[in-house]
Amino acid sequence: MVEGGGSKADETEFTECWKTTWRTPYLVKLALSAGIGGLLFGYDTGNHCDYSCGGCYIWSWIWRVDKWQMIILRRIFVGLGIGMASMTVPLYISEASPARIRGGLVSTNGLLITAGQFLGYVVNLAFTRTTGTWLWMLGVAGLPALVQFMLMLTLPEPPRWLYRQNKVEEAKAILKKIYSADEVNEEINTSRISVETEKADEQEIGDSMMPKLKGAFGNVVVRRGLYAGVTVHVAQQFLGINTVMYYSPMTVQFAGFASNKTAMTLSLVTSGLNAPGSVVSMFFVDRAGRRKMMLISMVGIIVCLVGLSAVFWQASLHAPKINPSESTKFVANATCPSYTSAANPASWNCMSCLKAECGFCADKANQHSPGACLAATTELKDACRAGNRTWFETFLTLTKAIGSAGTFLLFAGFCVTGFICIYAFVPETKGLPFEEVEKVLETGYRPKTLRRKSRGSPTSA
């Protein structure tokens, strides 16, 4: 049974990435030029808007939003850009990186994503009270996108891809810029064996799409790799980070910081902590290993999500009450219809109002005092804010069904499931070339606690 990892990985120190890149600045150019896509992807997340990396984003930035049809078209272009960047950027960096520092270099993409998120919040805060706010917010993304577009024109294809296209000399020229002279021939030989094996498999399977798909799923290496990859990505998407990032200002406001500017400023803490976390990952991912880092981070996320759930549960119990007379300060029939028809309106508070899909207008003097539960209309929202009051509304459909506390507890449940699946199906790959990773998958992986005691026990496919 293969546990994953090996002597080469065990000897790798956390400073190896920095030493190697210092000696090989060409690697830095490759990683950062491609990684700008991560920066702009993160900016799109932190900005809550529709612009990010590459040519698709530049094109969408040029367009003006005059009609809803244009907004939909721009979302299509941005979606294409995000999809291509999310897949190609880490793939490009990994294929162009030496195995011993691949984790650290690929982590630069994650670092730039978190840096982009922080930049998005900073830009939002800077242009909060500026004329044409959203145009400035979106326009800023066009500059680094243009820089990346120009840099990508100068970058080569990955050596592995060049070798597969029979461009051996071009592949050697790139490898000489990445590896030492005595390592180039070894890398070329490794690529030759790998590509020959791939081509042999393709000849056996055929050229049409359906036989290729059938053959791929019939391949134990591909199947196990798919299990591991899907497990990690599903766990990442369901752990709740997108909810925290997209709705951070609203979450801060629910915690008692009413001012939009204050909420945006405090949200910088959330996005700002992402970047140092990525730096920690870059230092240790090639020393401690990918698997261990994922499991440790999942435990931390679970603890934090349970903590958030407890905080929101307490917030729902101590939320400001509803003062019926407060709604009379606005237009006629402003009170939330569900509140007026409720069997026991005296028991309602801010959270009850939001679950009824209405808006809560906080008291002007003290936002913790009873406020008004109003119909969720644009006119009443504007009237509430015009009186220097804070307007709250339900920011997720899920929170209506199970509440904010239940939402974060659900995310914690997903994380527990993700932890179990990562522990069971994802092997360690630190310091291993792609060919060695294939051997790990071919042999099969089971953690020690799940291995059968009987000798020669079969592994699952």
Automatic annotation (TrEMBL):
The chain crosses the membrane at residues 72-93, 105-127, 133-155, 293-315, 401-426. It comes from the Eukaryota. It is found in: Membrane. Pfam families: Sugar_tr. Residues 1-430 form the Major facilitator superfamily (MFS) profile domain. It is a multi-pass membrane protein. GO terms for cellular component: membrane. The keyword tRNA processing does not apply. Keywords: Membrane, Transmembrane, Transmembrane helix, Transport. The keyword Transmembrane applies. Its main location: membrane. InterPro entries: MFS_dom, MFS_sugar_transport-like, MFS_trans_sf, Myo-inositol_Transporter, Sugar_transporter_CS. GO terms for molecular function: myo-inositol:proton symporter activity. Belongs to the major facilitator superfamily. Sugar transporter (TC 2.A.1.1) family. This is Inositol transporter 4. The lineage of its organism: Eukaryota, Viridiplantae, Streptophyta, Embryophyta, Tracheophyta.
